[in-house]
Each structure stands twice: as structure tokens, then as C-alpha cells.
Design goal:
It is a single chain. Helix 5 crosses helix 7. Helix content is about 45%, strand content about 20%.
Length: about 180
């Protein structure tokens, strides 16, 4: 938030949203990238957010980790996106689509690829097979040299595997583009 305020001069609301308009006018697009999994009551919050802040013909874009991904299947309980207790909810493709229907949303497009969370997540999943138990993002920020070397070795395979998984709707993330059902 501080970076966005300083670098781009944006007015950032730092409090937890519960209901009501966040600006004078509703928005054409609302994006929630890797937000829903952190919320204790995502459906209620999203209902209020959409009702009070999205134009009638506006678009909602959601992205969450994909519990039905190949990454999740490979890593099992070591999958980086389980991240309990920070992640309170986990979504499969079927569950996220059901969630959108419950909110009266029509899905107009879906994607399953992410360069940073998809490919990095696949690297983490593959490394977990070989005993890696760390937190990959934290370890990279700390310049873990052994991890960086290991990433160089698995990155090409991870990229190809994640591209294939994404093409089969089993990538590390689910991104849905939705409009209100008419």
C-alpha cells in the first residue's frame, strides 16, 4: 500500500472492507487477485462489494490458487498455496464456479496460467518431491544460493509442465472473468 501511494500517488484504503461504496461512483472493473483465500467470509464480502461498487455491466476478475492443480497433486500437503493459517479457504475449479453462480455471476472467460505463482508454484511442488520444505518466496528473498541453483535445474521442466497443466485447466491458479447474470 505504501509503495502504491508513494510511487503512483494512489489513494489506498487500508482498512478491511465490510460494506458500502468505496468511491463516489461504481467501478467498471473490480479485481481480486489472491484475496478470497485470505477472507473468513468471502461470499458475504464479495456480495457487498459487488452490490455497492460494481456497475451493472461491470466485470469482476478473481484469481485464487487452484486446489485441483497439478501442483497441488504433486506436492500434496506441502503445496505452497495451502499456506495455513494465512489461507482460510481453498478453491477448486468446480468450487469457484459454484461460488460465482451463488453470487449470480456469469463466467465469460477463465485462465489457469500465472508466470510468477504458476511457474514458481510448480518449481516448489517439484522441489518438494526432493525434500524441499521451505517457503520458496521467503527463501528467494533471502538469496538462498542452494535454492537458486535448484531452481535453475527445475525451471525449464517446471515451465513446460505448468504450461501443459494450464492448457488442461489444471494450472496453479484459476482466474475467472465474470459479469452479473442478466
Amino acid at each position: 500500500a505504501g509503495f502504491a501511494e508513494e510511487k503512483y500517488g494512489l489513494n489506498i484504503i487500508r482498512s478491511m472492507y465490510s460494506s458500502g461504496p468505496v468511491a463516489k461512483e461504481p467501478f467498471d472493473v473490480i479485481t481480486l487477485f489472491h484475496v478470497l483465500e485470505h477472507l473468513p467470509h468471502p461470499k458475504e464480502l464479495l456480495q457487498n462489494l459487488l452490490r455497492d461498487n460494481l456497475k451493472a455491466n461491470g466485470m469482476l476478475i478473481l484469481e485464487v490458487p487452484n486446489l485441483s492443480s497439478w501442483q497441488s497433486a504433486i506436492a500434496g500437503n506441502k503445496w505452497m498455496h495451502l499456506d495455513i493459517p494465512r489461507h482460510l479457504s481453498h478453491f477448486s475449479k468446480a468450487r469457484l464456479e459454484e461460488f460465482c453462480r451463488e453470487l449470480d455471476l456469469k463466467i465469460v472467460r477463465s485462465d489457469y496460467f500465472s508466470w510468477h505463482l504458476g511457474v514458481l508454484g510448480m518449481c516448489h511442488s517439484i522441489l518438494s518431491i526432493f525434500g524441499y520444505k521451505g517457503k520458496i518466496i521467503r527463501d528467494l528473498k533471502n538469496y538462498n544460493k542452494k535454492l537458486m541453483l535448484a531452481l535453475l535445474l527445475v525451471l525449464p521442466f517446471s515451465l513446460m509442465l505448468e504450461l501443459l497443466a494450464s492448457a488442461l485447466n489444471r494450472g496453479g491458479v484459476i482466474r475467472l472473468y465474470c459479469r452479473r447474470a442478466q
